[in-house]
Amino acid sequence: MSDFVKEPGFYAAGRLDYDSEGLLILTNEGELQHRLANPRFKLEKTYWVQVEGIPSEDELEPLRAGIKLKDGITRPAFVRLIDEPDIPDRHPPIRYRANQPTQWLEIKITEGRNRQVRRMTAAIGFPTLRLVRYAIGNWTIDQLMPGEHRLDQVFLPAEKPDRIRKNSPKRESNSRRNKAIRRQK
Question: Shortest CA distance to 74 belongs to which of 106, 114, 34, 105?
Fold first, then answer.
């Protein structure tokens, strides 16, 4: 992370495993970091996932209902087939299968178990080849190239602690400096 962030005191709100890429939010505010990373707050995360093979709608249904993994049943996920997203190629690719068709999925989850999306797709017989976190809540990788970042101001209202608003008017006592960066190995 120090390759991208030169300012001290910023910490990741959540994590990406070594083989994953995409959005990572950094903050210098502990309360916001807790709200973004803690599954109790059910903040939606959107992933673009390239899987080996082409799943049918019926084969995706267990993900939509909640699938049993070693650490329990997942919350239901939003899952849909998508066209290949317009994202830079990854060099080298994590996995490549020359003779195997692949399909891209959009998967939205509200929890963050270790390697959860990869384990979910493997559980239905379609291993993940590439995983890109596209969004966390309203933050996205739109307009960010790998390694780039942008600063956003976030206001956490005292009257509604479960809501996080992006780009609220700056108030000195309540504004938080946060960074959204796009990571690629």
Answer: 114
Q: Within 142-181, where are the H helices?
A: none
pTM summary value = 0.79
Q: Tell me the pLDDT tens digit for each residue of 110-125.
A: 988 889 999 999 999 9
- The 8 Å CB, 24+ separation contacts for 162-170 are 162/41, 164/32, 164/35, 164/36, 164/43, 164/137, 166/137, 166/138, 166/139
Measured between alpha carbons, how far is 135 from 177 in angstroms, rounded to an integer? 18
Q: Are 113 and 74 in contact (CB under 8 A)?
A: yes
CATH numbers and ranges of domains, the chain: 1-42+144-185 (3.30.70), 44-136 (3.30.70.1560)
Task: Name the residues annotated as catalytic.
Answer: 17
